[in-house]
Amino acid sequence: MLHILRFLHFTDNKIFPDMKDENYDRLWENRNLFDILNDKFSKFYNPSEHLAVDEFIVKFKGRVIFRQYIPKKHKCVGTKIYKLCDETGYTYDMTVYLGRDRERTAQQLTATHATVSELTKKVQGCGHKLYMDNYFSSFGLIR
Prior knowledge:
By secondary structure, the chain is α+β, with helices and mostly antiparallel strands. It has a domain at 49-143. 27% of the residues lie in helices and 23% in strands. Strands 1, 2, 3, 4 and 5 form a 5-stranded mixed beta sheet that branches. Strand 2 and strand 3 (77-86) form a beta hairpin. The longest helix has 13 residues, at 31-43. The mean pLDDT is 77.
C-alpha cells in the first residue's frame, strides 16, 4: 500500500512552477485532482435549501508548508479544509487553506469573509439559507 501512495502522482513533475513567483500555487501537485472533484461535486448534485460553511482538519504529518497546528482540535496537526455542505452532509464545494493570500489582503477583505464568498459563489442568488459558526461571521459578510 505504501508503494502505491509513494508513486501516485496527478501532475507531471517536469512542469515545476517557480516558487518565487507571486502567483505560485502551493497545491500545484494536486490542483488538477482537487478542481475535478469540486467540479463533479457541484455538477451532479443540487444542494438542499440549508447550507453550512465549516472547517475541518485532515490529519497529515507529512512535510508541506501549509500544514496547520491547532492544539484545541482533536486532530491537532494536518491540512485545514473549508467546506460548504448541505443538511445531509454532502460536500458541495471545498477549498484548502494554503496560508495568507496576498490578493485578499490587498482587497481589504478578512480571510473568513473571502472564504465564505468563494465557497458560496456557485449558489448565490438561489435562495439558500447559510449557517456558520462565529469564526466565519463578520460585519462585511452580513451586509
